[in-house]
Amino acid sequence: MREYVCGKLSPSKCRILHNKAAEALEKQYASSEISSLKSILFHYKMAENHEKYLCYEIANLEKYSGLNYELYPVFESAGGETSSPGDDIFGYFAQIEKDLLEYHHNNPSFTRFDELFSKLMHAKSRYCILTGNYETGIRCLEAGMKNPYTKSNGNFMLMFMRQMVYYAIQVYDMDILDKYTKDGLMMSLSLANSVEHAFYHRLRGLYFINIGDYRQAFASLIKSIDYFSKAELHNQPYILNIAASYNYLGELNRRNGHYPEAIQYYNKAISLCSENNCVVNPTFYSNLASAYFASGNREEAQKFFSTADSAYNNTVTLMGKAVTKIYMAYFRYLDNNSDYLDYISQAEDAADTLGSPMEKGILLYVKSKIAAIKPDDFTESSSHYLAESNSLLCNIPGETVKF
Fold first, then answer.
1. pTM, whole model, 2 decimals?
2. What DSSP assignment string belongs to 208-248?
3. How far is CA 83 from CA 65, 78, 166, 282, in A?
4. Which helix (H) or strand (E) is 2 found in, with range?
5. 216-239: per-residue pLDDT in tens?
6. Of 3, 167, 231, 316, whose CB is crowded by the most CB atoms within 10 A?
């Protein structure tokens, strides 16, 4: 019908019609909904309304990046099809940035430039940090945080700061994690932003776990859970943040050697996601499997590492991937499957991209165990891998591998 109507009109009248359709959709739908964003975006594109098209293109991209890329420490999507920028993500970002800069150059009075540029940098940083493209990701974060719009908008600055936190989590940089979780708590409190304050309590809890202060970690995580549990808005980000806090409580107990309690918390995180039709972060499965393995239950460990492995094969998420792949290599070796070397290679690739000393240390420990039995398949001795593992894990409280 749309093609028929436009076919009967002149190009100029067709553009006017598309512009009116977009304006009507703006009034009818919440702009944060993916379906409405896509529809509005389409009509403004056909109307050749470049300013509005850029606004919605970047809004669509930022929403998409939130749904699909900000996966650590929680998924923010229930799965299913969403608006996708295609396979060439970096090319897509580059094209939007080029279009935005050109439009601003040709229209110096364009008042929303700083806002849109900042949002574009935020969306791009999400993808880059998640996928281990840290140099580009940090460059985007720095550009965005220096932007006048961000500097004048504390709540948006908090979102940039959380990306720095996610970067610190992935590379296990405790100095950065300490600074930005502490600053985030103070800023969110001063802005009376209770949602961000609860986010930062959860992330601060992880910092305390990583430095071995389990008492303060527990207190921070409970504060986060308490807020999200009482929140009137029972939407997915709130539910998933509760699940992520349960996952961290599992980590707290696992590192203390309290495996039954850890398993209980991991299962709580997974169940909460499943019951609310949310995608389960593969890290939850990997952590659960690690707890089962440490407790001596190899059958359940293999089961959940396999579940995690399948999930990692369908996402760009890196956290926990190397650990999952190396344990899968171990189990594949025990099953006399020759592809265990492929799993080791996948684990090494994931660990190198992620850059976490913790995951690299776990990988090397498990690798040392396999190399002790099959030395001809490795370039170094078992003792060499074990020594490297110990040097990486010795400064990480509670992170030991039990065979």
1. 0.87
2. HHHTT-HHHHHHHHHHHHHHHHH-S---HHHHHHHHHHHHH
3. 10, 14, 24, 22
4. helix 2-7
5. 999 999 999 998 887 765 566 788
6. 167
